[in-house]
Design a protein that fits this description.
single chain; alpha+beta
Length: 69
């Protein structure tokens, strides 16, 4: 786990290894999601980059009877 520090202006720095692994660029927007046990930062993806990003996803899932049409 990587430790970060909140500055006096409530800013944080995303470590370089995390930025590289998620391909986060300078000026890119992130979504902040508040959960009961913490927060998540999700990089926004332009629609042009989203084409095929779910390729290979397993679509055979079990659904409850009330979720079926």
């Amino acid at each position: 786990m990587t430790e970060i520090i909140v500055s006096g202006k409530y800013q944080i720095v995303i470590p370089a290894e995390v930025r590289k692994s998620f391909n986060i660029k300078k000026g890119q927007k992130l979504q902040l999601i508040v959960e009961y046990d913490g927060i998540k930062l999700i990089p926004n993806m332009p629609f042009s980059e989203m084409r095929g990003f779910l390729r290979g996803m397993d679509t055979k899932i079990e659904r409850d009877e009330e979720e079926r049409f």
